[in-house]
Design goal:
single chain, about 280 residues, alpha+beta, 3-stranded antiparallel beta sheet, about 15% helix, 15 strands, about 20% strand, paralog of FGE (formylglycine-generating enzyme)
């Protein structure tokens, strides 16, 4: 999808935001024209990449990746180390993009779902192969807003306009009960829900979008053109939320919301899309 660029108000000052996330201040940003994938890179896309290049992901090299505990059998959960601060995550041996829940699982039937268990470095390798790049945080937010100024979500101010689900997020009581009222417990097809005003799918929920920028919470309030974030850092920005987001602990499916992860980290709710030069 080709976008004309131009000026928009980036960031937010939502009362529900985590103050450590650095969503604000709201600041004027001007972007040059660019093009962006309307959908996440899918499992099928990534299979073509690895088939042609022989690329091995970092999760495959490390021998494990993070999987939501509710997707695992009791024996696998028991055998897997949990994250102390987030015990719903298990470090599962053998979990990869082609075996999303570890040995014995398969991505068959999820060819049109976002590829997961890929790190920022894996996404960068795919981008190099595909002739694109990971979006800057500013490019991502401009695209995600879909032309709406100051809206809370990519489609407007209400999470469920006219009672309709517009994204794939946790329904019920996190992390013990997911009613899947939106139709999905885990990932969903990349075009499962309506696109935003720019025709872009999945910029709220489903999987996190990895961005090019190093993480910072120090944002200049003055006008900027084509900002690219700090020159160095230890973690990369992710935007958009995932199927595990719930307003009781993580309402980061709002369009201004943000989080971070280290470049070598992979999990079952982290994906990406690419940008390209205008033209």
């Amino acid at each position: 999808m080709s976008l004309p660029g131009g000026s928009f108000q980036m960031g937010g000052e939502d009362a529900d935001a985590n103050p450590l996330d650095g969503e604000g201040p709201i600041r004027p940003v001007t972007l040059s024209p660019f093009a962006i994938d309307t959908e996440h890179v899918t499992t099928a896309d990534f299979a073509r990449f690895t088939g042609q290049t022989g690329y091995v992901t970092e999760a495959e090299e490390f021998g494990w990746s993070f999987v939501f505990a509710g997707f695992l059998s009791a024996p696998v959960r028991k055998a897997s180390q949990r994250v102390a601060q987030a015990p719903w995550w298990c470090a599962v041996s053998g979990a990869t993009w082609s075996a999303p829940e570890g040995p014995g699982s398969t991505a068959a039937g999820r060819e049109d779902h976002p590829v997961v268990h890929v790190s920022w470095r894996d996404a960068q390798a795919y981008a190099d192969w595909a002739g694109g790049a990971l979006p800057t945080e500013a490019q991502w937010e401009y695209a995600a807003r879909g032309g709406l100024a100051g809206a809370r979500y990519p489609w407007g101010g209400e999470l469920m306009p006219q009672g309709r689900h517009r994204c794939n997020i946790w329904q019920g009581r996190f992390p013990t009960k997911n009613t899947a009222e939106d139709g999905y417990r885990g990932t969903c097809p990349v075009d499962a829900f309506e696109p935003n005003g720019y025709g872009i799918y999945g910029v709220a929920g489903n999987v996190w979008d990895m961005c090019a920028d190093w993480w910072t919470t120090e944002h200049r309030p003055d006008a900027q053109s084509d900002p690219a974030g700090p020159a160095t850092g230890t973690a990369r920005v992710m935007r958009g939320g995932s199927y595990l987001c719930h307003d009781s602990y993580c309402n980061r499916y709002r369009v201004a919301a943000r989080t971070q992860n280290t470049p070598d980290s992979a999990s079952g709710n982290q994906g990406f899309r690419l940008v390209y030069p205008a033209g």
